[in-house]
Design a protein that fits this description.
This protein has about 300 residues and is an alpha/beta fold. The protein has 2 domains: about 250 residues, NAD(P)-binding Rossmann-like Domain (Rossmann fold); about 45 residues, no CATH class. The chain has 10 helices and 8 strands. It has an 8-stranded mixed beta sheet, sandwiched between helices. It is globular.
Length: about 300
């Protein structure tokens, strides 16, 4: 028996990239799938199109699965509400949501336009809120449900030129943690997956030198969108019912459980601190445990498996 047999799964951003692979993988595991995609460009500026979502739904149906398309934006709360209703009306239930919808508008922070900040936060962070908020009460009432939100190592570690994207993805980690904590009594699970994969969004990276060219070629070869998609499908399955509140990175055939913020080192002073003693004692004592300004590439230095 397939791991999602008889389950209903919504995949937002399901018309392209990892979202498309999530929808196909879920259907291959027996799920009835609502493929939701606005059909816009990777930067969110191009107009929407119904074709990407419908093409994925058609592909699933052609392979013997059950799927319908949806064209609402995750930023539209009325549209997201309709998305949930569509799943219930078409398939009579809902058991998991996988939110892959996203855009990129990379720019150095001192050059970042307010419009680019607002747009990225709205799609990633507010979109994650909208999807989770629309599904959570249904999941609580049926005493079961899996919410899978997409993070990024940009939000966990950092990448230059992605202040808007990093802030949104870091916010998603905090959002997911609280949803998991509050939902545990009702078996409502929430996890974050930060994927490495070659998609049209990653395809916007400018190739300016041989090192970058090699990195891009390696991503295309070793880090396919179907790999994190299969992990998302596993998290959506009943077999992962004890997994919640976690942050994972999936890179090629590697799966990492990421740390979450906890105290590294502390220092106290019985008679209290002054700014002077903080400078002369506290900060020097803590300095050895401070993080350097590493990027994702500085942390994941080895080739993917």
């Amino acid at each position: 028996m397939s791991i999602l047999e008889g389950r209903v799964v919504i995949v937002s951003g399901g018309g392209n990239g990892i979202g498309k692979e999530c929808a196909i993988a879920a259907a291959n595991q027996g799920a009835k799938v609502v493929v939701s995609d606005l059909g816009g460009g990777a930067d969110g500026r191009e107009g929407g199109s119904a074709r990407p979502a419908e093409e994925v739904a058609e592909l699933i149906r052609a392979n013997g699965g059950e799927a319908v398309a949806n064209f609402d934006s995750v930023t539209d709360r009325k549209g997201v509400k309709y998305l949930m209703e569509q799943a219930l009306d078409e398939f009579g239930g809902l058991h998991a949501v996988i939110n892959t919808a996203g855009i990129l508008r990379d720019k150095m922070f001192h050059k970042l336009e307010d419009e680019d900040w607002d747009a990225v936060l709205k799609v990633h962070l507010e979109g994650s809120y909208n999807i989770a908020r629309a599904a959570v009460n249904h999941f609580r009432e049926q005493n079961e449900g899996s919410i899978i939100l997409f993070g990024s190592t940009s939000g966990l570690i950092g990448n230059i030129g992605q202040a808007n994207y990093s802030a949104a993805k870091a916010g998603i980690v905090g959002l997911s943690r609280i949803i998991a904590m509050e939902g545990s009594k009702n078996n409502v699970r929430c996890n974050v997956v930060a994927p490495f994969a070659w998609t049209r969004m990653i395809g916007t990276i400018p190739v300016k030198d041989e090192a970058t060219k090699r990195k891009v070629e390696l991503m295309q070869e070793k880090m396919r969108p179907d790999q994190p998609a299969m992990f998302c499908v596993a998290l959506a399955a009943p077999g992962a019912s004890d997994v919640t509140g976690q942050v994972f990175v999936v890179r090629g055939n590697e799966i990492f459980l990421m740390s979450q913020s906890r105290p590294l080192r502390g220092i106290g002073r019985n008679d209290g601190w002054t700014p002077e003693t903080m400078l002369s004692e506290a900060l020097p004592a803590l300095e050895g445990s401070m993080y350097s300004l590493e990027s994702t590439a500085d942390v994941f230095t080895w080739d993917p498996v």
